[in-house]
Specification:
By secondary structure, the chain is an alpha/beta fold. The protein contains 21 helices and ten strands. Helix 5 packs parallel to helix 15.
Length: about 450
């Protein structure tokens, strides 16, 4: 396949890859993913792998990572203030907590006060890629109907210069798609998609981000901003899953993916939020086909709608399965999804749930080395090496606290049982010192006796 190159010198990771260059960012990704550097370069060139690395953030403290088919399944955490809750310091604390508990990227979705200052602080503190949704800030101090295309482009440019590594832009929601949501139970649940739909209806005009997409690409190419093409018409309930509106937008995103690649702009595709288990594989296959193998970034998805307060669980179930079938990054959901702005503990709970989901997906996909930690923990469990079990767990503090809740004395760290079974009923304890040679002799003797 012949790739089109801009006239200027390469700026984006995709442009460098297509020129045959292995950049330092690609080398770092190869090291982290245990994949040859030339494989990383080729996958970036083809658009199946993205390295969200704004040139301004890359020149600072960013530790490059990748999202795509040859990489491990990644996790994004959303943070950000709201008009009613949170402060700059709290958001930086959430960033640090998110990274501590395993977030591979973090999106700043601030809609309240001091948005610029909050983002600057987050970027200065972050070694992981930072994403945004520029339209949120664009409407922070005005009504959506007052916005012009130039205002949106100016905000995208402003955030690109700040160092934002990837941006959700809802360029694929078209005026022609809006009648398709009429029979939905939950209508439009994407904030960005809803804002643009309202703008289109008010102005009786096409999506300004679709009409100005070439200008969006100009900005992204100049700063190496990865475009996360947003799913503004994603289903917000099981009843609305995999409907005509969702897939009409997806077809447009396929077109926009091709146009971005022609300019050397990195692209990933955002996916649905509420999908029943039996439709997950089909959704991945459809996205990969229509969007030419572009990395797939999904919110959850939630596989049932009946558990407010526990949607980190309903969505982690879907996340594990959709990751198994080929989704490349999973946007975490916290227990407060649909209910409130998450606090620090919610961030932790959401990330632990999603680290489990992402790891389960890597195991199911047979990723080399993915099972090593599982095997090591299982050996420690069979050896009753409690400290090693704690150290290998995703959350050592919680694992240790649960064990010590009923057996707190240090004596029990050497015990060959836990409080569930005790010494008499622990099957591993009872069978740990078995003489395997003697068992083999017994089995062979019985086989010989049966043959007589």
């Amino acid at each position: 396949m012949k790739f089109m190159q801009p006239a200027s010198e390469p700026v984006t990771q995709m442009q460098h890859a297509r020129a045959g260059t292995i950049t330092p960012a690609m080398e770092r990704v190869a090291e982290r993913e245990h994949v040859p550097a030339d494989t990383i370069r080729d996958e970036v060139a083809a658009g199946r792998l993205v390295i969200p690395a704004n040139i301004h953030h890359l020149a600072g403290n960013l530790d490059p990572m990748a999202i795509g088919a040859v990489a491990s399944v990644k996790i994004n955490a959303n943070i950000g203030n709201s008009p009613t809750t949170s402060s700059l310091d709290e958001e930086v604390d959430k960033l640090e907590l998110a990274v501590r508990w395993g977030a591979d990227t973090v999106m700043d979705l601030s809609t309240g006060r001091l948005i610029d200052e909050t983002r600057a602080a987050i970027l200065a503190a972050s070694t992981v890629p930072i994403g945004t949704v520029p339209i949120y800030q664009a409407v922070a101090d005005r009504d959506i109907e007052e916005l012009e295309a130039s205002d949106l482009l100016a905000m995208i440019e402003h955030q690109a210069r700040q160092g934002v590594d990837y941006m959700t832009v809802h360029c694929g929601v078209l005026l022609e798609h809006l009648p398709l949501i009429r029979t939905r139970i939950t209508g439009i649940v994407s904030r960005g998609g809803g804002l643009l739909a309202r703008w289109m209806v008010h102005h009786r005009a096409q999506n300004p981000l679709y009409d100005a997409y070439d200008e969006v690409l100009d900005i992204a190419a100049a700063h190496d901003v990865t475009l996360s093409l947003g799913d503004g018409l994603r289903p917000g309930s099981i009843a609305d899953a995999s409907d005509a509106a969702q897939f009409a937008e997806l077809e447009t995103l396929g077109e926009l993916t091709t146009r971005a690649r022609e300019r050397g702009v990195q692209v990933m595709i955002e996916g649905p939020g509420h999908i029943p288990l039996d439709q997950l594989e089909m959704n991945v296959r459809k996205q990969k086909e229509i969007c030419h193998g572009a990395p797939f970034y999904t919110l959850g998805p939630l596989v049932t709608d009946i558990a407010p307060g526990y949607d980190h669980i309903t969505s982690a179930i879907g996340a594990a399965v959709i990751g198994w079938h080929g989704a490349d990054m999973l946007c975490y959901v916290t227990p407060k999804e649909h209910l409130s702005l998450p606090n620090a503990e919610d961030v932790k709970q959401g990330l632990i749930a999603y680290r489990i989901a992402a790891h389960a997906a890597d195991l199911a996909r047979g990723r080399p080395g993915a099972r090593d930690r599982d095997d090591a923990l299982s050996r420690a469990r069979f050896a009753f090496d409690w400290e090693e079990q704690f150290d290998l767990s995703l959350d050592p503090e919680t694992a240790r606290a649960y064990h010590d809740e009923t057996l707190p004395d240090d004596f029990f760290k050497e015990a060959e049982f836990c409080a569930m079974c005790g010494p008499k009923f622990c099957p591993m304890h009872n069978f740990r010192d078995v003489d395997w040679d003697e068992i083999q002799r017994i089995v062979e003797a019985r086989r010989e006796a049966a043959a007589v």
